[in-house]
Amino acid sequence: MDGLLGIGLVLALLLGAGGVIGLLSGREAFSPRWLLAAAGLVLLNDALLTRLYGRLPDLIPGHWNWEGKILALLATLAVAALPALGWTRSGLTLRQADLKAPLIVASLYGLLFVGLALAFPNEPNTAETLAFQLTMPGLEEEAFYRGVLLLVLGEAFTGRVRFLGVDWGWGALLSCALFGLAHALGVSHGKASFEPMVFALTAGPSLIGVWVRLRTGSILLPVLMHNVGNAASLFL
């Protein structure tokens, strides 16, 4: 029940904020159908991550949510394969439109997390934890948030502003906000909680991921950045 309440709250925030932005943007720059499609994708992603809110058996042993992540990733790949989207438009490609500046930014991003790991070391971790953090979070979350969801929200809000060499739209900002909410918003025993610091530390860096994704046309570097950020503290 808490999981359904949580995703219901996220969807209400997305549709409410998206509706207001759409009204302010005007009919020509806003597509309600694509916004509803984005809401449907968020619901599907959450349902699979939680194994249909605990209704599916956990068939993969271990401490981490391997099954939920794999199911969500497979669904994202399937959605990206639809003719209305396409893998390349969704960023699921190895081809890089530009690498010079993105590589510099990605390197600085990695060094930042290495520095944080050195300053705040963790206890030794298991082989499963290392394997999970080096794969699943970056692959699944980047494919969804910086891939398919970013594209669909970009279709919902077509207005763009050129900044730092890429075209930003409301969809990019909303995708980052949703990524932050996925980490910072929780519901326990029917009561919602929100952690502003967690939101800032997830939604903020995701803006960098969006910039790299838009600049390169690919989620490859964002995936590597994400996994390095997650795993740095596990090795150092």
Structure, explained:
With 236 residues, this protein is mostly helical. Helix content is 68%, strand content 6%. The strands form two sheets. It has a two-stranded antiparallel ribbon. The longest helix is centred in the first third of the chain and has 24 residues, at 2-25. The protein is globular. The mean pLDDT is 92.
Provide keyphrases for this structure:
68% helix; two-stranded antiparallel ribbon; 236 residues
SSE inventory with pairings:
Blueprint: H1 2-25, H2 32-49, H3 51-54, H4 66-80, H5 100-119, H6 127-133, H7 136-156, E1 161-163, E2 166-168, H8 170-184, E3 185-188, E4 191-194, H9 196-216, H10 220-235
Antiparallel strand pairs: 1-2, 3-4
Quaternary state reads single chain
**Mean pLDDT, all residues:** 92
Classification by helices and strands: mainly alpha
The tally of beta strands, per DSSP, is: 4
The string of secondary-structure elements, in order, is HHHHHHHEEHEEHH
Strand order of the largest sheet: 1-2
Shape: globular
**Helix share of residues?**
55-70%
- Strand coverage percent: 5-15%
Poorly predicted regions are none
Rg (CA only): 18 Å
Please summarize the sheet with the most strands: 2 strands, antiparallel
Instruction: Give the helix tally.
Output: 10
Distance between the termini: 39 Å
